Amino acid sequence: MKLLMVGAGLSGAVIGRKLAEAGHDITIVDARPHVAGNCHTTRDAETGVMVHVYGPHIFHTDDAEVWDYVNAFETFQPYKNRVKTTSKGQVFSLPINLHTINQFYGKTLRPDEARDFIAEVADTSIEDPQSFEEQALRFVGPDLYEAFFKGYTIKQWGVQPSDLPAAILKRLPVRFNYDDNYFFHAFQGMPENGYTAMVERILDHPKITVHLETSFERAQKDQWDHVFYSGPLDGWFDYDLGRLGYRTLDFERFSYDGDYQGCAVMNYGEEDVPYTRITEHKHFSPWESHEGSVLYREFSRACEPQDIPYYPIRQVKEKALLADYVALAEQEEGVTFVGRLGTYRYLDMDVTIREALDTAAAFLAQGQATPAF
Ligand code: FAD
Ligand code: UDP
Q1: Which residue has the CA at smallest separation from atom 3 of ligand 2?
Q2: Contact 81, 267 (CB under 8 A)
Q3: 314 catalytic, yes or no?
Q4: Does pTM top 0.90 for this prediction?
Q5: Which domains does the chain have, with CATH numbers?
Q6: Which of 32, 277, 314, 340 is catalytic?
Q7: From the CB of 30, is ligand 1 less than 6 Å away?
């Protein structure tokens, strides 16, 4: 079959590779001048440091098959994500752990004591937290909430935490030990030569042809036996029903002679600091040595039509519009909507790859795959 992948990110690349290996002819188009989508990495021209062009990406998963998959295409260096945050004129460790609690309250609590202490300061009158704010007050209490979560979240999402779902915070643990690993997954690492090199290898197959700087229009659909579309769901329908809401990011690059902040990611909890975090990219490649340093200040704001969509908002209003688009999508034939934009979800890389492998397998078995909106 003649198959088209719209998008050369992880979704398009992994589905395309699986279907190419099964003998299909795969064409992949991407509007951008590079492959790898939002995971794209490249060497900074001034410093030679490998930079994560669309924001920091750390690979972490519990899925052994996905871990084996990425390791088949790239060497992964061990990497633990240790995030710091600046708040109230001090630097603290995230996610909230025993060090954070002891430092914040000026105490020397042991694990059990800290657990009891947090239970005292937490608002246990909230039985079933619904909003982000309730979730934070219920589990860490008002002091830690205001220092680490409130300002950051207002900047990140542009709304009050009381108007956001609890699920956004549920991703972050509270630890009563000194484990400051941001993720709690069995496998974690960084691709030695960057994500783009890994995706280039996934795409390196005689049955795959890639066209960069090539935009797909829906009118071209009938030239293909089937299309896998990892572009924006509402974009497929020319935004006929309106636009699905996203947050976009602006990155302000600056360089520094030496080591600017001593870690890869420094969050800023205060609302009056306009950016959410600063990423110092050379700390993502600790096995390399660089004198100079390149950093990105990261600003979040509402996504306008000309911007890159980053975080789907998925609030009540957006979910209603999404349901209308899903109803339209279900009537479309010859296309499968995939990936973070095609299904309007926040997806980590490992989940994207897992879904891509499953989508390809379902297509090979049944000639179709059901999207997971
Ligand atoms: P994308 O990477 O967005 O690829 C879609 C591609 O389709 C794009 O290249 C786009 O140009 C192309 N395209 C769209 N429409 C068209 C069209 N009409 N014609 C041609 N081409 C088109 N995950 C982690 O596991 N760890 C992390 O630390 C992490 N950090 C993240 C940080 C940020 C700021 C963000 C936003 C995401 C992060 N992620 C992280 C998630 C990760 O970026 C996604 O899992 C991954 O990018 C999804 O791949 P995709 O192929 O579905 O989408
Ligand atoms: N968050 C916060 N302060 C921080 C880090 C995270 O308030 O220092 C909140 C913020 O609302 C964010 C959510 O917790 O959207 C989830 O954090 P995560 O690090 O998973 O953010 P993401 O990877 O989505 O940017």
Answers
A1: 149
A2: no
A3: no
A4: yes
A5: 2-40+193-244+312-366 (3.40.50.720), 90-170 (1.10.3110), 246-302 (no CATH)
A6: 277
A7: yes
**Ligand 1 pocket member 6 (CB < 6 A):** yes
Q: Is 277 a catalytic residue?
A: yes
Asked about 143 being catalytic, the answer comes back as no
- The per-residue pLDDT for range 148-196, each reduced to its tens digit, is 999 999 999 999 999 999 988 876 689 999 999 999 899 999 999 999 9
CB atoms within 10 A of CB 132: 25
Q: Which residues line ligand 2 (CB under 6 A)?
A: 85, 94, 148-149, 152-153, 156, 168-169, 171-172, 267, 269
**What tokens appear for 361 in the block?**
């397998």
Crossing angle between the packed helical segments 111-121 and 98-105, to the nearest 10 degrees: 60
Contact (CB, 8 A) for 203 and 16: yes
**What is the tens place of the pLDDT at every residue in 117-148?**
999 999 989 999 999 999 999 999 999 999 99
Cα–Cα separations (whole angstroms), residue 357 to 3, 72, 286, 368: 16, 14, 31, 13
